[in-house]
Amino acid sequence: MAQANLSYDAGKQTETFAQLRCVEGRIDEIHTQIIMISSINIFLSITAFLGNTLILAALHKESSLHPPSILMYRCLATTDLCVGLILEPATVIYWLSLVHEDWNLCLYAATTYFITGYTLSSVSLFTITTISVDRLLALLLGLRYRQVVTLKRIYLLLTIFWTFSILAGTSYFIHPHIAVLCSYICIPLCLVTATFSNTKIFHRLHNIPKCAPSQQGIQQPRQPAPLNLTRYRKAVYNALWVQLALVICYLPYFIVIAAVDRGRPPSNSTFVVFQCVETLVFLNSSLNPFLYCWRITKVRKAVKETIRQVLCCPWN
Q1: Tens-place pLDDT, residues 248-277
Q2: pTM for the whole thing?
Q3: In this structure, what is the dihedral angle of CA atoms 137, 143, 144, 147, given to the nearest 10 degrees?
Q4: SS3 of 73, please?
Q5: Torsion angle defined by CA atoms of residues 13, 15, 17 and 23, in that order, rounded to the nearest 10 degrees
Q6: Separation of alpha carbons 151 and 174, rounded Å
């Protein structure tokens, strides 16, 4: 959703976003820097694609996790996969089209870049916020959690996220202020919701004794298993690491967006800074597979098994 802020003059409503990016993106004397940044992004594109492909394969094999949780992590991995498969190549094409002054290609690349970037960043933010709320519900609802948070409801929620994000992204080409307004509303809302959920979780965990008999009680016949605090704490920290990585990678981008004067075309140095912070945003999609493997033991084992099968029996 951060992509909505990339227009340097939203008041120019007669020009599309792609036209502004290409016309105001004319660069001089920084071709070498752009090519270097493009090379880095090609590498990140490959790692994001391969890493998240392995994660999706591992999540497909892993059946011990709660199905709604698996679905949310699949959604995150899918958005990261699309970053490596679509968004980063489109961004590299956009940068190189500026270097070679191919304005027709620039327009197509900038259009793809904006719609894809807006959609994927929005879905990622919504999904990570949902994971925080999901962990809070698991703590508050107790035995009722699996009855309330069902696979069908999560499917419906993620479908709404994707639909809203695509519509909001494409609306920018109808009226620029629609996508910007959605960003200004949804980003703070998601941040406040995730912060509230995590604060509430740690407050409740702090007040629960380490050996709470109510949480470790004997399971009654035909009743859902009580909340395992040890596994729950681990799941909370797993989600928190993913959220922290997103904040670290996205924060410099928002700082630059807020600091730059968007009423005039960027200078060469500003343009390079923009590309660097965008590269840091893309880095998040390559980092997440490593975080999943590091923090989630079962996913790590499934990834190792998948790699072993591919290397030993590539044609089977």
Answers
A1: 999 998 888 878 756 566 677 888 888 899
A2: 0.84
A3: 100
A4: helix
A5: -140
A6: 35
